[in-house]
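job 3f2a | input accepted
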Amino acid sequence: MRNPLKFIQEVKQEAFKVSWPTKKETIQGSLMVVAMAIVAAIFFLLLDQVLKFFLELVLKVSI
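job 3f2a | predicted structure (63 res):
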């Protein structure tokens, strides 16, 4: 097994190599996630309403 101190040093070196997103990129990504969540919510709302309409139509016909 490796030396634990050497392992910690290597982890620290790798942490400095990480390319962190800028504030602008973080905000832009967050807004995209929120926008896609809203689009998905509207899509599933409309789909639910259409399926509800057809289900009620089928149930009325069969009675």
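job 3f2a | The chain has a mean pLDDT of 92.
job 3f2a | closed
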